[in-house]
Amino acid sequence: MAKVIVVGGGAAGLVAAWRAASLGHDVQLLEANNRLGVKLRISGGGKCNITHGGSPRALLEAFSRPQARFLRPSLLAFDNQAVLDLLHREGVETYTRDNGRVFPLDRQGSAGAVVAAFETLVRRAGVDVRTGARVTALRGQAPRVDGLALDGVPITGEVFIFATGGASYPETGTRGEVLGWLKGLGVPVRPWFPALAPIPLQCPRPAWEGVSLREGELRLAAGVTGRRLSAYKGDLVFTKAGVSGPAALELSQAAEQARRDGAAWLTYAAQLEPAETVEAALLEEQRTNPRLLAATWLQRHLPERLVAPLLQEAGLERDLMLKELPKAGRKALVALVTALPLGEPQPVPLARGEVAAGGVELGAVDPRTMALNGWDNLRVCGELLDVDGPVGGYNLQAAFSTGYAAGSILKN
Ligand SMILES: Cc1cc2nc3c(=O)[nH]c(=O)nc-3n(C[C@H](O)[C@H](O)[C@H](O)COP(=O)(O)OP(=O)(O)OC[C@H]3O[C@@H](n4cnc5c(N)ncnc54)[C@H](O)[C@@H]3O)c2cc1C
What we know:
FAD/NAD(P)-binding domain; five-stranded parallel β-sheet; four-stranded antiparallel β-sheet; 13 helices; elongated; binds flavin-adenine dinucleotide; Aminoacetone oxidase family FAD-binding enzyme; RsdA/BaiN/AoA(So)-like_dom; FAD
């Protein structure tokens, strides 16, 4: 039996602490906040998208290839069904939406019910839970951690598990400082990088705040005339400062990377067919329906609120009929529905991401135990690792699976 110190009482730390205590270890869980699972409580807009349905293999495919390879052993050992079985045994009923996302049954405070279940599990397993306990220093040198400091008070242990999360939403306790400590000890890390965040734009459209573009594709190119870098099919919502919604979140990391590389340009294709096909259809419409207003045609593809300002920007009269539309006007209309220019992204805020990319490099960690290579008693799990999945329950599942692996400490 070992004395195990788990730092961080979020998704990964709760599972790590419960698992280690269930194996008979003497576990202390240190959480900076005054209560456990603060980020879990706000996840999924307070509803908590716990995991994603489907086979573990399908789940892994949502991650980048190196991340999937790393996650495979821990996810197979504690997969989505295992998480749900555990929660069901604690009385948390769940349902799966058509898009595969799994949530607790829709009730007031459903994310809180998930946290309560994990809290019950850790306490029942005998974990010594300390809240309001922010660890301020890590002492040691490879291959051993000697101890921690909690506001100057030393904490000793035999195994140390860091589950301190990422660096977004710092108000939830995740300030990201532990990555710097690990780096200082020679652990390979990739700096925090924004992901799954809204994208601010150089020329935002505050007047369009709240307008959604649906079922199209957000596209990222290396500059106005540059090559296509990335694209994501999904809805987009205009905000005061730029764009948000599923497509913006999913493309935010690539947009920030392109911006840092020197050239990034965003467009939204409300109509997914090629411009030539859309133009041919518009030509046919001009022939068969010459008195149709250009505004009415545009409104078939874009929200009504955008029609008048976009026509004005394109230099077209509001009451223009298709029969009066010159070739240049036709091209302009087609461009608006196939490549609505959103423009250059501004720095994507790390703090507003649903996850932070970057973290401890995966090559430095044993994927079965989350032990750091070259260290005898140091493990890391959850978002502190360089793992970032898409929206859909994948990030919590990664935290649960890697937490379980970190807590699976064999007895000597
Ligand atoms: C708004 C929002 C919505 C989200 N929705 C979803 C969703 O629906 N589904 C999904 O899969 N993912 C979602 N995510 C992502 C998901 O919540 C995280 O990936 C996941 O919580 C990471 O778990 P973790 O245990 O690694 O870190 P966290 O849950 O962030 O836990 C880390 C804990 O460590 C503590 N800590 C940090 N430093 C110290 C220290 N020095 N000493 C002591 N304690 C410390 C923090 O206070 C924190 O409680 C969302 C994220 C956000 C921000």
